[in-house]
Amino acid sequence: LAVIGCLLIDPLLVHSVGFQLSVAAVTGLVVLTPVLQRRRVPLLLAASIGAQVGAAVVLVPTFGTVPLVSLPANVLAVPVAGPLMMWGLTAGPVAGLVPWWAGVVHAPTHVSLAWEAGVATWAARVPLAPLGLAGVLAVAIAAGLVLAAGRVPPPARPAVAVGAASIFAAVVFFALQGPAAAEGTELDAGSRFWALGGHSVLLLGGPPSATLLEALRNRHVHRLDVLVVTRPGPAAADAAWPLVQALRPRVVLAPEHHQLAGAHTARRGAVAVAGPLVVNVTDGGPPLVIRVTDRRSDPGYRHPGDPPPR
Questions:
Q1: Confidence at 156, pLDDT banded by 50, 70, 90
Q2: Which residue has the higher pLDDT, 174 or 58?
Q3: Radius of gyration of the chain from Cα atoms?
Q4: Fewer CB atoms near the end CB (10 Å): N or C, the chain?
Q5: Is 191 exposed, middle or buried (0-12, 13-18, 19+ CB in 10 A)?
Q6: What is the rounded (10 degree) CA torsion for 279, 263, 207, 180?
């Protein structure tokens, strides 16, 4: 009834990914949470699993991946989200009617929002690769084995448990792997990608194509160390901005007269470091030209985790 009511008010919501995710997550809550609770799964964890499984139905076809870190993030965020919403709905009109008291009334709101923002920031930084379709299917099979364990004959239960545990362990192992190592891989026309030791560099030579975004997803790239935008002007800035928002690069380099917020103007001789990868600007352009080297090939290179030389 809620979905029908929303669509009667705004039929175009049917094309909204956010609306689709909400409907899918609530469906997962309604269908799966009671089943998990009957299996003695704690309510908070059962609700998080149910919502995430439901959302995966939309996430995989739309984005090709499911963020594995969302499960613990939900467990941490959900207990605060409900009280935050209810307090906001209650305190909002009071704060509007008595503006001079708004800061006091909304003190719990500020604390709750700080917690939610902290959880989101932590989750975004966790080095867990998102699960693709194969990972989601593997988790679904393992979960099915867990749910079926209670119905199989007792002699077969240890084998079922071992099979489920093995699948979960394999999924976690691959999720902990960083981006696959590459050396100047051309992702599409004008764009190249380097990844080594969990650090990555992307050279953006033009507007990001579907091929580029799909290639980054397939490499489980969810964070960039260095993004290099080769051309200035508003068109290049508009093309790069979705990548900046999605991949949150630590450093963005662009040529003079760029219009990309937060980018550093890179001139010839500028250097940026991404772990063992060193980005050298050989021509300030435009277009900007870089050379990426592996500083581990330098005999004097020492990894930050190595003991200091004697």
A1: low
A2: 58
A3: 24
A4: C
A5: buried
A6: 40
Task: Give the other-Cβ count within 10 Å of 287's Cβ.
Answer: 16
List, in order, residues 6 or more apart from 271 with CB less than 8 Å away.
Answer: 278, 279, 280, 281
Higher pLDDT, 177 or 82: 82
H helix or E strand, kind and range, residue 82: helix 70-97
Spatial contact of 172 and 160, defined as CB atoms under 8 Å apart: no
pLDDT of residue 169: 64
The answer to whether residue 24 scores a pLDDT higher than 90 is: yes
Which residues of the chain form beta strands (DSSP E)?
182-188, 191-196, 199-204, 226-229, 251-254, 264-265, 271-274, 277-283, 289-294
Q: Are strands 271-274 and 277-283 parallel, antiparallel or unpaired?
A: antiparallel
Task: Quote the distance between the C-alpha of residue 96 and its chain's center.
Answer: 36
289 three-class SS: strand
How far apart are the C-alpha atoms of 178 and 205, rounded to whole Å? 24
Q: Give the three-class secondary structure for 239.
A: helix
Residue 53 token pair: 């499984």
pTM of the model: 0.49
**What pLDDT, on the 0 to 100 scale, is given for residue 20?**
92
pLDDT of 178 over the 70 cut: no
Pairing type for strands 199-204 and 191-196 reads antiparallel
Q: In 3-state terms, what secondary structure has residue 192?
A: strand
> Six-digit token pair at 117?
């923002």
- Give the separation between CA 118 and CA 66, rounded to whole angstroms: 21
Phi, psi of 17 (to 5 degrees): -65, -40
Least confident of 66-75, 158-167, 221-230: 158-167
Average pLDDT over residues 49-67: 78
